Please model this.
Amino acid sequence: MGFSADVRARFTADGSDGFTVDAAIDVRRGESLAILGPSGSGKTLLLETVAGFHTHDGTVRWDGQPLQDLPPERRNFGFVFQEYALFPHMTVRENVEYGTRYHDEIGNVDRLLEALGVDDIATRYPPTLSGGEKQRVALARARAVKPQVMLLDEPLSSLDVPTRQSLREDLADVLADVTAVYVTHNRTTARAIADRIAVMFDGEIVQTGDPKTVFERPCSRRVAEFTGANTVDLERAPSLRSYLGIERGATVSIRPEAIGLAEGEGELTGTVERVVREDATSRVTLDIDGATIDAFSEQYWPVGETVSVSIPTDRVHRL
Model:
């Protein structure tokens, strides 16, 4: 068994009509679940509601035991905030040790500091730390109380790209043996750290599955587009429809990384419309029969060039 939540909560801010979250999640013991969705979809509200910060209807359970009537401090959840929430007047060590005074079972603080690469700054204060250092300290503080569940609210979103990549790798190790719910709008982060992904739109979970299923077999056009897949109405792209051998009236999703490009003209061709460099690869936007499709390529392709396109049929998903 593990952690489960089925909650309904309404949050009203000044000057707004309010926002409702009505969602259910299940997380097996030792599993990391990423809640992936755009800004404003209710991800943070769901996480805060599960933590006990908002009143709500429904249930929150650990190993079948109800927790929804307990205050946040008695739910034994570790919460990692997007903006660190460290005590500025306490040293790094004091911040990490803070919650341990209220728990009988605690982690080894020295080992946590070392594991997260902040043991050498244990006597420094938060205002002197970089964003990456602050987030590592916040993670160590949350782990120090040996929580039943780790709840993480976009802890990498405010970091620069190199720091985010480095911490993402460490985070995958830190969460390897922990039951965790991780909120993010970043699909790369979700794929990197999650055992399963729950996609959230407008306060509701619309699809849950392992990363491969969610990204390769999206349940709708909206999920496909949010997770970075091409979506194509084959009725408007007859040569592509013929190439794929799919009947009229179908809309499909195709991952850009599944598409191969080569010189010359083959069975299926496209015209290069735009090339955007992304680290070691380029995102190449193609026009195929009037359909706009993105592909990744390590080779440079001039705008206007006709290229041969190959698409494995087993990487094509009908929506």
